[in-house]
């Protein structure tokens, strides 16, 4: 238990530091949306910190911590690179502009504190897996299923991003992106993100009490679908010609056959 408290406290401090550095970068860039680039990097560093501390003070299976570092790093660094390269030189993201314009409170209350807390909360499976030892015959099966779900999520996210980039380069594109994965869900990248963290949770759940960290993928899915992800973006997209019709026939989050 002492090891878990150390890992948990250290990762919380890391989340605070990440948001402080991001706030400085945001002031220089003139936009708070740089936090989207921080997200993947911060969770990757959190995975590394948890694994190192777990090796020093915990009794966890170190191979599992290393696996979680690899899974988190592949997802997080790809995401941060994609978001950073796409938004470089751009203005404020309309999602954050609308968020900051609503009601009282500034970036500290609306962005930095919630995002920092989310980083710590989402990383709970990484923290617990670093200091607990897997036992029982179900472990290989859960790890394998978790890796498969993670792989599906990464593929879904990366393919969706690539299809959107190709659409934006097409001079003959229509008013709304409704090709490929986007024909079945309006937000394949957000859905892929959610799958990644359900996969990571399954790997952590192969040891007690990792299963209790189910709050992590639940929170991630909630953020992606109903808070800073799809729902916030939908408010802007609904103003575009053709998007309401696209939304009427296409699932918002979970991929489903389009309605006629």
Query: How many individual helices?
Result: 11
Main beta sheet strand tally, sense and closure: none
Q: Could you say which structural class the secondary elements and strand pairing correspond to?
A: mainly alpha
Spell the H/E element sequence.
HHHHHHHHHHH
Morphology: globular
Mean pLDDT equals 89
- Based on CA atoms alone, the radius of gyration comes out at 19 Å
Overall number of strands: 0
Distance, first to last CA: 55 Å
Fraction in helix: over 70%
Contiguous low-pLDDT stretches (5 residues minimum) are none
Query: How much of the residues is beta strand, in percent?
Result: under 5%
Overall domain count: 1
Question: Could you explain how this protein is built, in words?
Answer:
The mean pLDDT is 89. Helix 3 runs antiparallel to helix 8 (188-204), helix 6 runs parallel beside helix 8 (188-204) and helix 7 (139-169) packs antiparallel against helix 8. The longest helix is centred in the middle third of the chain and has 31 residues, at 139-169. This protein has helices at 2-29, 35-57, 62-87, 94-101, 107-122, 124-131, 139-169, 188-204, 215-227, 230-237, 243-249. It is mostly helical.
Brief synopsis:
The protein is mainly α and 260 residues long. The protein is 71% helix and 0% strand. The protein has one domain (2-249).
